[in-house]
Amino acid sequence: MSKEWIAVDWGTTHLRVWRMAGREIMAKAASDKGMNTLAADGFEPALLELVEPWLTETPTRVLCCGMVGSRQGWIEAPYRPVPCAPLAETLVRAPTRDPRLDVRIVPGLSQSSPPDVMRGEETQIAGFLALKDGWDGVICLPGTHTKWVHLSAGEVVSFQTFMTGELFALLAGQSVLRHSVDTSGWDAAAFAEAASEAMSRPEALAARLFRLRAAHLLEGPQPARACAELSGLLIGAELAAARPYWLGQNIAVIGADAVARAYVEALSLQGNSATFAKSDAMTQAGLVKASRDTE
Amino acid sequence: MSKEWIAVDWGTTHLRVWRMAGREIMAKAASDKGMNTLAADGFEPALLELVEPWLTETPTRVLCCGMVGSRQGWIEAPYRPVPCAPLAETLVRAPTRDPRLDVRIVPGLSQSSPPDVMRGEETQIAGFLALKDGWDGVICLPGTHTKWVHLSAGEVVSFQTFMTGELFALLAGQSVLRHSVDTSGWDAAAFAEAASEAMSRPEALAARLFRLRAAHLLEGPQPARACAELSGLLIGAELAAARPYWLGQNIAVIGADAVARAYVEALSLQGNSATFAKSDAMTQAGLVKASRDTE
């Protein structure tokens, strides 16, 4: 029987746990106790709420990735400077009161020039590489803060973060555009057109955004179209800026289904075919890799 | 004695009134009862709260500009399509119960291609032209939704809106950058550098924004510098996109003090000298013009 352990994806707004036997998932659970809802002494209770039934008298290994390792997290797992392999050889131990827990946190990565940081994505990258041995190229990880990562010979060489996801959420949910955009809608043609337009004139973004509002006032509401256009404009502008990353490269996109597919679609409009991998599966694969490397 | 009337600047979040005798300001008052706090039947009471002491038995003319004339305002004053003079020859009468009030609203302007709208800025433009007879060129009106307006022979020929001010407020107040930016601080050199950088590489905006956060995490907080950089990046990207408007033109900037000066400074870095005029004074001058034109 494979050894049991627990895999944990602990981000800013979510906590997801998997009961593992070797590389097999035996059970899973989740809560909304993300890092930004917890003080330093709140992490152990939040974890126990989900995993207590899985614990035994001998300490269980718990491997965590994500914002749980930030300065505002359980304990700071200092950034490792690139270039380096995505996973550290030693993880950072978190203080616990419960003797049944042996908690370790995967450190994030940093880059000094230009300054940049990641936490959580390094584990997804490690998972992807574990499944695609010898893969070289560029990985795009769309999310609140989208990362573009250049990989070579199993190492992260450089990376760049774009605030595209957060801009979309703020604009669609809190700006004047909220009246004109329905995020449950989609219009694939409008997305493609807006993405192409933003790629050729990325600097026009702030003006093009207001046009969504003006078109609503003058021509009537088209909330699904406006949502796809907003997404296309932001992703198109990002792709224009990230061109030095992806041009002529082997590309993979790791993310949640809908947003990752939008990136794959926008890249294909530029004649690039990208491999798609789901972020949840890559996180699990990365934590499996961390578990084997640090046994 | 000049005839008494009341000038009203009624925007989304504010209500400002001036008791006027001809072009002289006799008194002023203000409240926070902007358009977005009021239902249709709330406008008359909100106005009376401020101006009741100034009313007489004979109806007093009240001239209003701004979002009060939008579909969600007191009564819709339909947009006038450009090209046209900034002020209409006839204003839109708002329904009132109090016989002492004779309320008229200045209509906004619209443009069909590309779709765009303004409300309130047309009055500031009219005020500026009234003070600078025969002025031709381009007016920039920074604000939540900054306008660039091309004027010729006393008419608004075309205009374009940028969501720069709203982006700044969302990013500085609600995004992950809020931890790194202090909007009470300023650093003129950082502003200039960021504005120049964004003008030469406007497409890099979403990446350059996250660098403010990463620099904070890796190099320590510099909240005043980060505020000036954020402003410089957004204004620089806007200037890059608005270049067809201002290049080689006579330029005026109408706005509140600090933000308008930032635009003037950014334009001067590009070798352009712009005339600065305060938005409050231009609104008053525009309403004086409307009062004389429609007597």
TrEMBL record, chains A, B:
One of its GO terms (molecular function) is 2-dehydro-3-deoxygalactonokinase activity. It comes from Aliishimia ponticola. Signal peptide: none annotated. Gene3D superfamilies: 2-keto-3-deoxy-galactonokinase, C-terminal domain, 2-keto-3-deoxy-galactonokinase, substrate binding domain. Keywords: Kinase, Transferase. Pfam families: DGOK. It comes from the Bacteria. This is 2-dehydro-3-deoxygalactonokinase. Coiled coil: none annotated. One of its GO terms (biological process) is D-galactonate catabolic process.
